[in-house]
Amino acid sequence: xxxxxxxxxxxxxxxxxxxxxxxxxxxxxxxxxxxxxxxxxxxxxxxxxxxxxxxxxxxxxxxxxxxxxxxxxxxxxxxxxxxxxxxxxxxxxxxxxxxxxxxxxxxxxxxxxxxxxxxxxxxxxxxxxxxxxxxxxxxxxxxxxxxxxxxxxxxxxxxxxxxxxxxxxxxxxxxxxxxxxxxxxxxxxxxxxxxxxxxxxxxxxxxxxxxxxxxxxxxxxxxxxxxxxxxxxxxxxxxxxxxxxxxxxxxxxxxxxxxxxxxxxxxxxxxxxxxxxxxxxxxxxxxxxxxxxxxxxxxxxxxxxxxxxxxxxxxxxxxxxxxxxxxxxxxxxxxxxxxxxx
Length: 342
What we know:
Layout: E1 3-7, H1 12-23, E2 27-32, E3 51-54, H2 60-70, E4 74-77, H3 84-89, H4 91-112, E5 117-123, H5 146-165, E6 169-174, E7 177-178, H6 187-199, E8 206-208, E9 214-215, E10 218-219, H7 220-230, E11 239-241, E12 247-248, H8 249-258, E13 264-267, E14 274-277, E15 283-287, H9 305-311, H10 319-338
Parallel strand pairs: 1-2, 1-4, 2-3, 4-5, 5-6, 6-11, 7-10, 8-15
Antiparallel strand pairs: 9-12, 13-14, 14-15
Helix pairs in contact: 1-7, 2-4, 4-5, 6-8, 6-10
Enzyme class: lyase
Organism: Paramaledivibacter caminithermalis (strain DSM 15212 / CIP 107654 / DViRD3) (Clostridium caminithermale)
Protein name: GDP-mannose 4,6-dehydratase
């Protein structure tokens, strides 16, 4: 039986990865940050099948202790301050968690369990002001947020430790991946929840920022499989994990509302653009400049050919299916709360 330690286990990716590893017969430990109220997040349904260890990415001692307790064969470092918008409001804590936190886990691995394999969660946000389209493993980085900058440090220090200490440490440069378990502060979940609420008559309007931003969106369940595959290789490599497709936020909105039988007609341009319900003529989507980023990432489009060739990885859930799953999930939850048939 292999043993894995997952930091950020209660998040979207952590929960799907936990399910995958349990299916494969792993013993799974999760790093768990102490709170006043015990909250298992997305692994609530798995809490009796895993072992949780209290720890914090900013506290090296707690990480070293977690490795001593779990004695992992594989470490998946998914813990992060993961909301890009918050990184402008909390740049120092974002850096402490997303940059120095990676250093802490690498040091703990090097000193306590140097034979363990480490997966580091890197991000397409490191590409930022993109230098080429599509983005691949060799594309130069140009992050456009404190989040992206901090993640870039984590990415490079992982590579440095791999080359300096001959440890098995690799990074997955994952492009946007969403799911029904995505936090409600993220734009994708904000859209799908709004579609459900507007259809059910409990929300009037959805306000968004840049509708022209282009992203490469996949489903998190597909992406955690790539994480696992990276640690099954003979030697550590970094991989881009993406769909190879890019879509505008506007398109995401259109498909989400279409799934609840609301056809949107887009009128106006720039900050004056609005989404109108074709049937009722009612404005249901509007642009609000307060949601614009201080420095925008206009387009992200990944080239997953290396992962597909070397790992045998392939995404299974399409862009449209991803959106439908998220809308159905939110519609079901909200309908149950309202006491109406889903």
